[in-house]
UniProtKB/TrEMBL annotation:
Native source species: Zizania palustris (Northern wild rice)
Domain of life, per lineage: Eukaryota
Name listed for the protein in its UniProt record: Uncharacterized protein
Residues in Helicase ATP-binding domain copies: 54-206
Keywords of the record: ATP-binding, Helicase, Hydrolase, Metal-binding, Nucleotide-binding, Zinc, Zinc-finger
TM regions (residue ranges): none
InterPro entries membership: Helicase_ATP-bd, Helicase_C-like, SNF2/RAD54-like_C, SNF2_N, SNF2_RAD54_helicase_TF, Znf_RING, Znf_RING_CS
Residue ranges annotated for the Helicase C-terminal domain, each copy included: 439-600
GO biological process: DNA repair
Stated family: Belongs to the SNF2/RAD54 helicase family. RAD16 subfamily.
GO molecular function: ATP binding; ATP-dependent activity, acting on DNA; helicase activity; hydrolase activity; zinc ion binding
Pfam families: Helicase_C, SNF2-rel_dom, zf-C3HC4_3
Keyword presence, Ion transport: no
GO cellular component: nucleus
Length: 600
């Protein structure tokens, strides 16, 4: 389907036209929902649950648009919104759409876009670049904002954040909760992967025509449980059927006929394995052995859960040792509690240690909402949560710690003490007179090779440890690299300026960007670079893909090389094994279902 020419000024790629047609079909089709069939008596039956009904089940108006990052999903969605606007102005009504009254308006055509605040700039930029000026009106519902529904309904797009929805969930007078939205788009929808989180519940409660839902209990019994059982293909088969009906997933490597999906130069992904020096290996092996011994002292599962944060802290420190011993203290006694039951009530040092766990690990998530903690809270039993998440637990009928099940009250929660960021000029203090780590030496060698091949080539080095980015500055500057740093401690304005400077191409321009994914994540375009170094692995392979796709996306003109730096015989190799296991599940879920005679 072509984009509406009176709204969208850019030409869509073929894969975007295909996606636009699919999105319109998902919104306007009267197809039966997945797993429902019409029986011979004219009734309807769900082939999984065996539920029967006489009336036709309503269609699911919505879906999962799961194309690879960097394939232009935002422009495709703007085309979808523009099509609704054009049809509304022309007096046409979308097939199957309801007529409804909203604050005196005959029918709402406003789309609500929910996303992390870091993605706002991407939507605004795409709107400015690809649509006619004034053809689509956007309102940013964040920070200081209107409480008038009429004001929001004057706009074609209202953009807000998941956290804003969570804050207003259940509030009287919240316009986002009162409006019956024409469409809701959940950008970076993995943010609401935890169904118990407040912001997830806020999204589910939105009043909207174009969306779909599924019973959690049914999904758990019919899909999740069989998936978790070994040698049980039923769950995967059902998941493939469901996703095949409601999702669209293409990667940059997907072919349409004999042509590639998009004309982006190829990328290669390689693992560069590093041997630790004799001194580093001695440190690492000693720490790993002492840690394992301590874990065995904890004994049973309940004791391990009571010391859950200590185990996370231990794993974090092992990962940092793979990067550089300067990142963490080598005093093992400071890593572990003095007794088998952690209690932070009268232990400020333990509070600081746990606070540093949330700050140092760029991929640390609150166990309830599965997102980086906001307003970090540490419980007396030494577990880390978002303030909103744990307060919801405490105010519920079962006020127990979700991890160790210890009873909690308001007196058992502590605000995490502030962990001061290192100043911009402390890289020399971090490195002191010690030799460079094996991983730093390896990265320097690889960057020098790239510079020798093409002095103007640009590279991005991702690490989840801000201290590591600072530590790299000294050696890189000493090697005459012109560098920039981009991390989560910077303001949005400062980050935008760094990205602008990195985009400049000239003999004296920066060639290396040291970046954290929090700052260079969703919505950031770094196609000026052609090499990506993942200095340390993430637990989630999707996070690594996101880092890579800042560079390998539409607009890239060079072949892209992705290099994972992995320490041999370390926790990093085990993290790769876990990533591969997750990737196999993802690939299987979006793969084509093999049908058998008795397959439903």
């Amino acid at each position: 389907m072509e984009a509406p020419g009176d709204v969208v000024v850019s030409d869509l790629f073929e894969h975007q036209k295909e996606a636009l047609g699919w999105l319109v079909h998902r919104e306007e089709s009267c197809d039966l929902p997945p797993f429902w069939e019409e029986d011979k008596d004219g009734g309807f039956e769900n082939v999984l649950t065996k539920q029967k009904r006489n009336e036709r089940p309503p269609p699911l108006k919505g879906g999962i648009f799961a194309d690879d990052m960097g394939l232009g999903k935002t422009l495709t969605l703007l085309s979808l919104i523009g099509r609704s606007k054009a049809r509304s102005v022309g007096g046409n009504k979308a097939r199957g759409a309801k007529r409804r009254k909203v604050e005196g308006a005959e029918e709402s055509r406003t789309t609500l876009v929910v996303c992390p605040s870091s993605v706002f700039s991407s939507w605004v930029t795409q709107l400015e670049e690809h649509t006619k000026a004034g053809s689509l009106k956007m309102y940013i519902y964040h920070g200081e904002r209107t409480k008038e529904t009429k004001e929001l309904l004057k706009h074609d797009i209202v953009i807000t954040t998941y956290s804003t929805l969570g804050q207003e969930f259940g509030q009287e007078g919240s316009p986002v909760n009162e409006i019956e939205w024409f469409r809701v788009i959940l950008d970076e929808a993995h943010v609401i992967k935890n169904s118990a989180a407040r912001q997830t519940q806020a999204v589910i409660a939105l009043n909207v025509e174009r969306r779909h839902s599924q019973s959690r209990a049914t999904g758990k019994s019919l899909i999740q449980r069989p998936l978790e059982e070994e040698n049980n293909s039923t769950g995967l088969s059902r998941l493939q059927s469901l996703l095949g009906a409601i999702s669209l997933r293409r990667t940059k490597e997907t072919d349409i006929g004999s042509k590639s999906l998009v004309s982006i130069p190829p990328k290669t992904v390689v693992a560069y394995y590093i041997e630790l020096s004799a001194e580093e290996r001695e440190y690492y092996d000693q720490m790993e052995l002492e840690g394992k011994n301590k874990m065995q002292e904890f004994g049973d599962r309940d004791s391990n859960l009571r010391n859950y944060s200590t185990m996370l802290y231990f794993i974090l420190r092992l990962r940092q040792l793979c990067n550089d011993v300067a990142l963490c203290r080598l005093d093992m006694k400071s890593w572990f509690p003095a007794c088998s039951l952690e209690d932070v009530s009268n232990n400020p040092e333990l509070l600081k240690k746990l606070a540093s766990l949330a700050v140092d690990g760029d991929d640390f998530d609150c166990p309830i909402c599965l997102s980086p903690p906001t307003k970090t809270i540490i419980t007396s039993c030494a577990h880390i949560y978002c303030q909103t998440c744990i307060m919801n637990i405490i105010n519920s009928s079962s006020s127990r710690c979700p991890i160790c099940r210890r009873s909690l009250s308001k007196e058992d929660i502590f605000i995490a003490p502030e962990v001061k960021h290192l100043d911009e000029d402390v890289s020399g203090n971090l490195s002191s007179d010690k030799p460079l780590s094996s991983k730093v030496l390896a990265s320097l060698s690889l960057l020098k090779c790239s510079a020798n091949e093409d002095p103007l080539s640009k590279s991005v080095v991702f690490s989840q440890f801000r201290k590591m980015l600072i530590l790299l500055e000294g050696p890189l500057k000493a090697a005459d690299f012109n560098i920039l740093r981009l991390d989560g401690s910077m303001s949005a304005k400062k980050r935008s300026e760094v990205i602008r400077q990195f985009g400049h191409v000239a003999p004296d321009a920066p060639t290396v960007l040291l970046a954290s994914l929090k700052a260079a994540g969703a919505g950031v375009n770094l196609t000026v670079a052609s090499t990506v170094y993942l200095f340390d692995p993430w637990w989630n392979p999707g996070v690594e893909e996101q880092a890579m796709d800042r560079v390998h996306r539409i607009g890239q003109t060079k072949e892209v090389k992705m290099v994972r730096l992995i320490v041999k015989c370390s926790i990093e190799e085990r993290m790769l094994e876990l990533q591969e296991k997750k990737q196999r599940l993802i690939s299987g879920a979006f793969g084509r279902k093999k049908r058998g005679k008795n397959d439903k």
